[in-house]
Amino acid sequence: MPTLQAFCNTCQKIVSAHTVLNDQDTLSALKLNGDVKIVHLARFSDGTGADHVWSLSGSERERLRSQMSGGSK
After folding, report:
1. What is the C-alpha R_g of the chain?
2. Where would I find the H helices in 2-57?
């Protein structure tokens, strides 16, 4: 699963996130302009955590498309 830097609306910051789909399915979704979901684990000061899942924005989709095709990030 690709890793990318993306803005998490819940955390209100840029985080390292992973695609929910495997590489082949992510590429297919990008080619078909489908929804691409990503996830990251948010860790809280009390030691607990929660996963945050959201869809990529247009510019993030393009950055991931470029990254996965071997272009610049």
Report:
1. 13
2. 23-31
Enter the tokens of residue 38: 């990503």
End-to-end CA distance of the chain: 16
Enumerate the domain spans of the chain.
3-68
Please report, in tens digits, the pLDDT of each residue of the chain (73 residues total).
Answer: 778 999 999 999 999 999 999 999 999 999 998 889 999 999 888 888 899 999 998 888 998 988 888 864 4
What distance in Å separates the CA atoms of residue 45 and residue 32, rounded to the nearest whole number?
Answer: 40
